[in-house]
Amino acid sequence: MRHNASSALLGAFQGLRISPATPLRASSLASTICRPIAAPTVSAAVAAHVRLFSATATRAGSWLEPNINRKKKMMKGRPRVPTGGSARGTTVVWGDYGLRMWDHHRRVSAQQLQVAENAIKTRLRGQKYRLFKRVACNVGVYVSGNEMRMGKGKGSFDHWAARIAVNQIVFEIRGVVHEQVIRDAFRLAGQKLPGQWEFVKKGDAPVVGITKMDGITMEELKRPRKALPPAEVPPVSPSATTTPSSTAPPS
């Protein structure tokens, strides 16, 4: 009885086989051996670490909402103003035109940046362009409720924000668009954002702190504003020049 059950189970498995159960002929086997084997497009080491399918949604994050745990509290802090001789982030890099803030450093919320981006896209609808974002909202702002007593904790998460230093580029545009149209789009975006904003082009002078490097080198900027007076050497008295032997009392 057991033998019949095992044979029936074996027959069922053989019926599920995809490849034919009959052995290959000698001619087909020889042609298979002599046929050149095509090189695989992906190496085995790389293919071993590639997940072909996943039902879990990935959280890649964006420039308005990063992939950071909201329950982990963080300090809002202040924007780092590059006053020590750095002009990083004050010039147009990828695009042809940019929008730069020039009045004061501040924190800008993700909602304000999204409204400014939508204003630019609405004004440039139908144009061929590419918009670059130079900032990222990676600072979490936590707010306590109204009439909350002191000592009850930091508060719950409210929104994401970005630290924008003075004279930092926020948006850049490159494309087949007239300059006046881009000026108008950046004007609308600047009205949606807090602070004062200016229109800059690629090749404009960088800014260190609040000083534009237009005809000024970094050596001149680090040089003192006024000439220092020469150090005065105190006069040497004649008594100090006498030798100890001459001042010693006679024996």
Task: Work out the radius of gyration.
Answer: 37 Å
Low-confidence sequence ranges: none
- What structural class do the secondary elements suggest? alpha+beta
Count, helices = 8
Topology, number of strands: 9
Q: What proportion of the residues is helical, as a percent range?
A: 25-40%
Sketch the major β-sheet: 4 strands, antiparallel
Instruction: Supply the CATH architecture of the domain at 99-145 and 152-206.
Output: Alpha-Beta Complex
How large is the share of residues in beta strands? 15-25%
Per the principal axes of the C-alpha atoms, what is the gross shape?
extended
Tell me the series of helices and strands, N- to C-terminal: HHHEEHEEEEHEEEHHH
The CATH class of the domain at 99-145 and 152-206 turns out to be Alpha Beta
> Would you tell me the overall average pLDDT?
81
GO molecular function, one term: structural constituent of ribosome
Protein name: Ribosomal protein L10e/L16
GO cellular component, one term: mitochondrial large ribosomal subunit
GO biological process, one term: mitochondrial translation
